[in-house]
Amino acid sequence: MTLSAWMVFGALGHSRTRCGKAALLKRIRRGLQSYDNELAISPKAFPESKLMAESQWYNVNRMVHLMGGLRAINEAGSKVTIPIGGNNFAPPLFIAQYHALHRDLISLGLKIVGVDYYESSQQLRGYHPPTWYPFHENQPDKNCSINAEHTWNGLAYAAYKAENIELMDICSRITFEIKACNLRLRQLSEAYNTELWSLCEQQQFYPGKIETLNSFSIYLETHDLLRELCTLRDYSVSKVSQLLVKIPLHDLHSQ
Fold first, then answer.
1. Are 75 and 60 in contact (CB under 8 A)?
2. pLDDT tens figures, 228-247
3. What is the largest CA-CA distance in the chain?
4. 27-45 pLDDT, tens per residue?
5. Domain ranges of the chain
6. Side-chain-side CA neighbours of residue 209 (13 Å)
7. Reported pTM
8. Both ends of the chain: CA-CA distance in Å?
9. Number of other CB atoms surrounding residue 70 within 10 Å
10. Distance between CA 72 and CA 93 in Å, rounded?
11. What's the number of CA atoms in the CB half-sphere (13 Å) around residue 167?
C-alpha cells in the first residue's frame, strides 16, 4: 500500500467526525475527483500531460536545466539552442515533435535536472516564476515528484471537503515539503548556472575543481535541499508511525 493510502486509512480509523468510515471515505473520494477534474481540464496544469496530442506543437517556451549548470533553450517551435558563454552557442538541435525534447537531449548524453515552462507573458517578463518540473530520468514516472505534490495536495483538498481536519493538516504539511524540495532543486541548478556562466563569460573555465565567490551559493543551496528532504522524510515517517500505531493489527492485514 502506498504512503498516501496508509495516511488515509489511518485517519479514517480515528476520525472524530460523526460519519462512519465508509461515508467518510466516500466523501474523500468525491473530493479527490473534484480536485482531479479541476486540474485535468487544463493542459497548463501539466505541461507534459498525456492530454496533449503527440503531433501538436504548443506555444510554450521551455528552458531545460542540464547537469552542471548548462541550459538548453527551446522557444516555441523546433529549434533548441545551448548557450556556451558570451554570444556563443553549441550547434542548434531541431526536434521533430514537441514531446521529443527530453528524448533528444538525453540521446546526446546530456543529463536533465528539470524544465522551466514559460506559458504566459507574465512569466516571460519575470512577473511570475516559470512552471518548474523536476525530471527523473531513471524513474518510470519521469515527473514523479511533481505528481506526488499534486497527489498529496489532492488528498488535503479531499480531506477538507470531508471535514477531516487531522488528515487535511497531515497532507498539507507533506505537500508543502514536497513542493519545497522541488523548488530547492531548481535553486541549486540556478546556483550552478551562475557559477558556470560567470566563468564562461570571463573565459576562466577550465577542467578540474574550481572555487569562486559564487561557489558558496552552491554549498548553501545543497544544504537547503538536503535539509528539506530530511524534514520531509522525518515528518512523513513520524506521522505515518503515529497513525499506524493507532490502527488495529487485523485492519493492517485486511488492507
1. no
2. 999 999 878 877 676 666 64
3. 69
4. 555 655 655 555 544 444 4
5. 3-46+144-254, 61-134
6. 1
7. 0.75
8. 8
9. 20
10. 10
11. 32
